[in-house]
Records
---
Amino acid sequence: MIRGAVQVAMVVAIAVLVLLLGLPLLALLVRVPSGSLLSRLSDPVIQEALRLSLFTSLVSTLIVVLLGTPVAYLLATRTFPGKPILETVIDLPMVLPPTVAGLALLLAFGRAGLAGRALSALGITIPFTTAAVVVAQVFMSVPFFLTSARAGFAGVPRSLTDAAATLRASESYAFFRVVLPLSMPALVAGASMSCARALGEFGATITFAGNLPGITQTMPLAVYVAFQTDLEASIVLSVILMLLSFLLLVGLRATPAGLAGRRPTAPRLVSTISR
Amino acid sequence: MKRWILTALLLATPAAANNPPATATIFAAASLSDVFREAGRQVTKRAGYTYRFHFAGSQQLAAQLEQGAPADIFAAADDRWMSYANEHNLIDGTAHNFARNRLVVITPVSNPGRVDKLEDLARSGVKVLMGTEGVPAGRYARQALSNLSKGTDFGRRVLSNVVSQEDNVKSIVTKVQLGEADAGFVYVTDVSPSMRGRVRAIAIPESSNVIADYPIALAHGAANPEAAKAFMDYLLSTDGQALLARYGFLSAGNATP
């Protein structure tokens, strides 16, 4: 009886969620004017936005991985005073409305902002540049990587690192030869999520970096501007962006690291934890 | 049990308690935000109707109306989006022009770009903000620039200094006020009394300036046409026109019905 109720609840929940998530995507797809997808792709404005989006989200993902990996490892393996505060600060961008993030970035790194004044004195201005797009993307996407990477590091059995230590492996040797390979699926998953988030970044970007074709107008901004003047162009752009994100997430599952999760060895343990 | 829930729901719904004044939803261009809020307070005081405002770029409002957003009034910052709304059956009856506006160039008080006159906008490295081509303020700015150019490359040089095309005029005011940009094209009315200490205005000569007409109309399928009409009547009345003038708008002139 209870088992039946659970089953019904699951089916209903799945149906509702599939409808809620799937229907809007379907609605976009059916509204695409036939044959216009490819012709729009040759539009220089769209090409520019596409190129800028791919470039900035790759750069920001690289920065996220380089800065995020040591931080995630630190959070997973050490305790220190103020750690809960640090964790909260790092998680904040996930729940912060992106426009608030953009305003905060402007007040911090803007020309007249807290740190911006010093940067300005050095001749560096960030707002309204491609660098500002990357900063906004890093700000918004780094928590996604950290969450996943941290779970990955935490999931490496302590016995393995202890064993490495008894064999007199240095911490860095153990990190690169034991911890890193075992956490790779979680790192790749985190990097992909973070890249997808960067690709879709809108609110912080338009507030902090502005909107100028070729410099700061990424795909989401181009979709927004087109929505106000040319609905058809906006639909086509949306579908292109959606396909890109879809490919990114599918690609994540097909990577060797993603496949590693299916092997019945240690990585499996890691990837279950990270999910 | 069921009846109990129903009663609770009814009690929780304010509309069921007693007949509250009708609330009309007003979709209006961002540049109207200050004056419309005050106009709403005035009409509430006089007629008891209340108003809910949604301010955004005219082009965005038109797009939202087209997608079925519920509204009682549509007020745009140019004829283009009102005609668009008319052609797409988004409004009922005819649109009336109730005010006019002009453009002005603003700079931060600190004036980091040393922009003191319009010619300075063309100096290389000056960071200029302007609306997108879709937003009326952006279109007017481009028109004014071409008027100012008089055959020179002034307009082209200013356009190459544009660091961002903003989607509504208020975000230009904010970013200039913060000192992030050196100058921006906004409406005269954006330099409101509270803004005067934060931005400086550089006038655009009458001969080159663009006059923006503000049309207003009843949205198609308005749920509260009475409340909407009361608001529109107020704007066109002597008191309403005086209020608009106080906020820096020009009178609609002979365009009033």
---
Amino acid sequence: MATSSVYYEQSNSVAGDIVCDCASTLAAYIGYFAYIVTNTGKRPKVAVPGTANIPVQFVIIDAPTTTTVVCRPLDPNRNIRVKCAAAGVTAGQEVATNNAGLLAASGGAAGNFLVGIAENAGASGQYVPVRPCPMYLHA
Amino acid sequence: MPSYIQSGTIEGYVLCDSAADYKTTSKIGYLVKIHATQTNNFRPTVTLAAAETDLCPFVIVDTPSTSTVICQPLTPNRNVYLIAGGAITAGNACGVIAGGKVGPTLNSRDAAIGFAENAAAGTDDWVAVRPVGGFYNT
């Protein structure tokens, strides 16, 4: 295993969960999708999507303060639970964020951003396991 | 401190129910997708890819019983050995074909699996693939 002293360019990168900044408390948004909106100079600043089918990189897993959240990256190697929107999802369905950061069926149209595949069926408010495979759908 | 909501998630290999008997039919190295009908609520049920556009997040790595399989997620961080559905050239993009093998041809809207790290001489050869997600845009 390589050490960070060898690959010093990557010494500030990190695998797995990361602390991000946020504009205001996201304590009520644990299990929601989040995306990078800017950078404070030290780390990404994230927000919950306000538009459907935009690229999201994380799911919020904790909110330790009113201005920070702990985010888990969408990684195909690990399933992740995401709070489901009112319409629900079915097992095996291609899924994306809705206009509130909740899990919903992918629009399936060109330019849409696909988050992954639902591993379980889920109803409104449930935390549904998703297998991430983020990608854009093309024309 | 990670949220308890994620406590049921797992990194790496997962035990899944299989939609058919993949032990007797020797489907190790085949690509599978998540089936719409689950056998139970604790894990996904998987089935062999039926079309080139199917999104297949897993490869079968073991078949402990006739109704379960152990699956390895496709991730760019680890190459995988897959069963070829025809000759594949090293370096070429490849995708799933009906039946769960990996094929050399990608048409528009096909689900890309990754890039071949070595050549496959023909059908049923093992081929090392570096996974990259996405749909192929011709």
---
Amino acid sequence: MRKLWDFHGGIHPPENKHQSTQSSIRSIALPDTLVLPLNQHIGAAADPCVRVGDTVLKGQMIATAVGRISVAVHAPTSGTIAAIEEHPVPHPSGMSDNCIVLRSDGEDRWMELTFCADYKQLSAAEILSRVRQAGIAGMGGAGFPTEVKLHPPSNDKVNSLILNGAECEPYITADDLLMQERAKQIVKGMEIMAYVLEPEETLIGIEDNKPKAIAAMREAAANTRIEVIVVPTKYPSGGEKQLIRILTGREVPQGSIPADIGIMCQNVATAAAVYRAIRFGEPLISRITTVVGESVPRPGNYEVLLGTAMSFLLQQAGLPLAQDATAAAPVDITSHPRPNQGHCPAVTRLIMGGPMMGFTLPNASLPVIKTTNCLLAATPDEFPGPATEQACIRCGMCADVCPAELLPQQLFWYAKAEEFDKTEMYNLFDCIECGACSYVCPSHIPLVQYYRFAKDQIRAARIEQRKSDLSRARFEYRQQRLDREQQEKAAKRKARAESAAKAQAAKAASDQPEQAETTTMATTAKAGAGGAESKQYIIEAAVERAQQKHLQVEAESSKPPALEARDPEGPQNHEESRNLDELLDRVTKTKAKLEKLQDSLATSLATNGDQSNSPATEKLSNAVEKNKIRLAAAEQALAAAQATAPSTQQSKPA
Amino acid sequence: MSIVVIAIAALLSLAATFGAILGFASVRFKVEGNPLVDQIDGILPQTQCGQCGFPGCRPYAESIANGDDINKCPPGGETTIAALADLLGMEAKPLDEEHGETKDKRVAFIREEECIGCTKCIQACPVDAILGAAKQMHTVIAEECTGCDLCVEPCPVDCIDMLPISTTINDWRWERPSPPLSSTQTIIASDRQGTAAGDNTKPTDDGDQQAA
């Protein structure tokens, strides 16, 4: 008997697994339309490799993996590509993402598949590339690309390969039924993974509330190196780190992956998918989804094609729903009260995933994806709306149940006060969002929501920081480039002046630097900036450039430079006159612009008079029109301003 | 007398030793540039918009290090002011409205059919985020645009729009849980008016409203 360890905390919520374990896995009718999101996994979205109108066969790849962390998408049935468009996807945000819409032809014709009777004839690299081609992503809920996970960093040798059959979350029984009915496939899939990874031990962890699955797996794993281990039922023993702790007694260090300590954890359904991909060449096009909840007349586990609308699946499970799956059939959700549009009144919430870690869906028109392990259509009695959040009474129950041994109370205070650096000090990113703390909280504080909020804010701030660092670098490069260009120009000018006036060469050469010197001195005095010499030089150069640009602008608008009262000495004195100045400035600028444009229009008309409606001329004439309108508006504004303040106009420095 | 001389000599030798150590340290461990300016520059949003009156974020950072006000950066807004106040040990002030107001982040977009290819916006862009050549259509690299508005004014045909950045599924963020709406909802359930003490296991209407 293997020694088992225990992890800290954990809870025992009502299991509610009996509802969906009464019948075997059922299949459903072929839906007319399948909506396949391009991103059903963690990583980059797949890239469509079919066009609208193309005919595809069942199992044909319709979107290829992009980059390292990504997986492909395949056609779950034969038919034609109806559209590649934005469609709502199951995501906590309820937003839309790019999807391929496949219209089924009803024939369900398979493409030609590559069988492989003996996986041992393939090399590890070949197996991995087939897994990647088959589009397999972790089916436990997170959806991390399996091929990437099976490719641990070269310095990490995997000693223990663990299959996760714990399925600790209430209501969900998809893995349970899979283990009961397809134990052989799981065992063979695990053998293939073991062939790739060459681990020293291969373990399957199953919670003791699934006796049938344990018996089936034990039978299938007889005469193999695979050890089936029964673990005590406790939520969240199915968490990767928690299961590793139970089975091996080891802890995954902060910020690292299990492979770093020589352990890899895979879901049982993933193992079955790997087996089917290698043995039969079948890509991942269907999965087993638990459909449960008090409002479902025929709860159970269903083998569903990916992309099937949830409303269709619920209908197949006996729930009367609106016929049109594409029309958004809204589900009345207690947390988001909205008018009930003639929908089945019994359903209050539709949840994807389990009650602890799943999220509420806005409606049932969303497709089933690779990570949809459970669909929970609950009644109001089953899942009452969230209770009012009360003040924290510092009872400490959250810390007692936290499986990651964090201090949920401290995290809550700091997340609520938006002191995110403190939440990081309390190891916020080690939180697995299992929801045990929220479950036990007597004050009904939605703790996990606070942690998610804090995590997302920290992530957003990091992205922002990276972006601003990049813009700083680009700004500095640009400054350097401009400096260099200016120096080159100055050098050229100097050389020209020297060669042009040889007699006056000495004078010209001494004049120029002197001038430059005086302007620099002036700007230094104005800026009044201290600091290191090199920095000062950069500032001076920047100020000088800014001033030169300024002068240019002024010259363009044919106005005396004194009018541009931008010097910091007297903004208050000229406050009123500046308004007028600005208006006047705008008028002159617009006039100048207009004149220029008219000139260029005339020249362009003259040069290609016969093709007067060429796009360039058209653009120019458009621009002239626009500028005329702007000029009129500016002049009007100026006249109005002058009428109200004639005195300031006179006192304006000319 | 000799005691005094010895004491003075001892102190002088101590002073000379420590002076030498300090002098050596100041040469050996000399810090290039001003680390405070780097820290301030790290907090500023790097839009390089010049709304503060300086030709970029770094000059403003240098000015702050020399005692300028910390509330002149509209793109950074309250967050930046708070971070600067924290760093410099000052009181946070409200944003100086003379320099503009905080707006949502936006990104420049060139209506390409109207662009005449004058390169004016390219010259105005502080972070080289506009691509194009003379008499060729220009375009903004949205990823690199800081939303500084500096390209809008020089455009002779007004073909540049500042578009708000819309949230996509990839940069969607969890929201902060909404706090209870009023104090009557935060009181102990059995104290609630019109609610029997034994009845509070059932969700009330208040709970639903709060979640909305």
